[in-house]
Amino acid sequence: MTKLLCIIGLFLLPFDGFGQLPVFSEDTPDFLYQGMDNVVSVTLNQVDPEMVSFKATNSARISKYSDSLFAVYPSQIDTESVLKLYYKNIIVQQKNVKILPNLQLSIFLKKEKGGIIKIIDIKDFHEIMLSDSNQGFEDKKNYRLISAGLTIYNEKGQIIYSGNLRENIFNDQVKEALQKLLPGSRLVISNPRAVNQFNQSVQVEAFKEWIVTE
């Protein structure tokens, strides 16, 4: 009955702009993390943003950051939650999403394989990347590294660089140390800190080591 009323309501809506309705953006995730703000964006299609609202089931808290950007904060783990998009108080779209516990980002280097990286590759990269293990790929849009400790050991186990990185970009000292590496050298990242789009801290694996090979 509810679905029928929604369908009837859609036909009664006066179309704005080019006759389109707001929709969830294509990058809307299929899952949300419990205990943190999750980004959900809306494509307004030129409708009045004051007429657009957003709700979620299972007691999820909703915050509005801009006309088209919302944050969903699930407070409990359930099998799923339903995101509901409203225009003029009528549902125009809904999406089922899973609620997952405790996001933890992984750190990786381009072209590494299980903590091993070839010497030709280590000298040709300039940044540390973050990966959401549930998505399985680098995520630059939602998360960013803001600091980390980096220690570089040569093939004899001697420290040739030790310092703190700002963001994920290597400074000139780090780049210079990388050019000196030989097979058997190691890179160690410790105490990394990362934030999401709303500058809220997110959990990152606390330690990562790479071994350089030929």
* CATH architecture verdict of the largest domain: Sandwich
Mean pLDDT: 85
Q: Topology as H/E string?
A: HEEEEEEEEEEHEEEEHEEE
The N- and C-terminal alpha carbons lie at a distance of 66 Å
Percentage of helical residues?
10-25%
As a whole number of angstroms, the C-alpha radius of gyration is 23 Å
Largest sheet: 6 strands, mixed
Number of strands: 17
CATH topology of the largest domain: Immunoglobulin-like
Number of self-contained structural domains = 2
Q: Given the helix and strand composition, which structural class is it?
A: mainly beta
**According to CATH, what is the class of the largest domain?**
Mainly Beta
In the predicted model, the low-confidence regions spanning at least 5 consecutive residues are 1-18
What fraction strand? 35-45%
Q: Based on CA inertia axes, which overall geometry fits?
A: elongated
Query: How many helical elements?
Result: 3
Map the helices and strands:
Elements: H1 2-12, E1 23-24, E2 31-33, E3 38-43, E4 52-56, E5 61-64, E6 69-73, E7 81-87, E8 90-100, E9 105-108, E10 116-118, H2 119-122, E11 129-132, E12 137-138, E13 143-153, E14 159-166, H3 172-179, E15 186-196, E16 201-202, E17 207-213
